[in-house]
Amino acid sequence: MRLPKNPFHPGQILLEEFIEPAGITQAELAEKLSWTRTHLNELIKGKRGMTANSALDLAKVLRTSPKLWMNLQATYDLDQVIKERKAA
What's the CA gap between 19 and 82, in Å, rounded? Predict the structure, then answer.
């Protein structure tokens, strides 16, 4: 199975591919999602992972698929575990 060489956290994709190009603030998006600003910021900074609930919220507001967000998280998580095992 081939994985991207260095997969991005879904929060980074959210910031760089959706928030910045749309010219909206994190506070504006958090309000649209009915999330706290802290929740959104922690996701963007990679301190929080994507959950199924978050994926559904993002998909609805950003008109994407929830599978996009879940696949990004799964790919990122798998890469992190592979790196940990190689380091052990």
Answer: 30
